[in-house]
């Protein structure tokens, strides 16, 4: 019996894979591999896109926070500077030196500052001041007052004008006649004016009793500064 069973077992033949079945298995394995590779590629692309999106949001939020910190610091500095400015203006309001040079006793002290350094290049106001206040004081005869109709900075308008810093020069000329003493008094008056006036060139013709003088001069003004709130788009 054992020998017969061994013979029967040895007589059983295992089925062999044909070439067609091998190719089918290879194709199935290839398709399976392709599916897994495609899934892995999609998952990797999704992860990369998600990381890129999160990084972009993180970078943008950091920019927003940085700009907010700058704005907060600017507001803090402006508030501190405003308090200092208020204190300085209050001190000027009771300054005796300014009170002594007021044109009118009813004017506030701060008006003397505006008289000394106007905020506009107003040629008409300058000519009026020369004719009615400065030149008339010495008793000279006014022959001519020449002030510019505009200045180099007058073409600048709008917000650009507030970007000008520091005093701006304004040229003008005056021709008068009178005695030597009156001309000398006029020169002294120019030196005593609260608004700075500098004699660039002076021409004298005639005699002590009848002297004609021409002054080429410059004065100054400083454009007013404005305070505004600006908006900035962060991208």
Give a short overview.
54% of the residues lie in helices and 16% in strands.
How are the SSEs placed, and which strands pair?
Elements: H1 2-11, H2 19-93, H3 96-99, H4 109-116, H5 123-138, E1 141-146, E2 168-178, H6 180-192, E3 197-206, E4 211-221
Antiparallel strand pairs: 1-2, 2-4, 3-4
What are the secondary-structure elements, in order, as H or E?
Answer: HHHHHEEHEE
Low-confidence segments: 151-162
Total beta strands: 4
Assess the beta-strand content as a share of residues.
Answer: 15-25%
* Major β-sheet profile: 4 strands, antiparallel
What's the tally of helices?
Answer: 6
Q: Please, how many domains?
A: 2
Described by the principal axes of the CA atoms, the overall outline is: elongated
| End-to-end separation | 92 Å
Under the CATH scheme, which class of the largest domain? Alpha Beta
Describe this protein's structure.
- The structure is a single chain.
- With 235 residues, the chain is α+β, with helices and mostly antiparallel strands.
- The chain folds into two domains: 76 residues; 107 residues, 2-Layer Sandwich (Alpha-Beta Plaits).
- Helix content is 54%, strand content 16%.
- It has six helices and four strands, in the order αααααββαββ.
- Strands 1-2-4-3 form a four-stranded antiparallel beta sheet.
- β3 and β4 form a beta hairpin.
- α5 crosses α6.
- The longest helix has 75 residues.
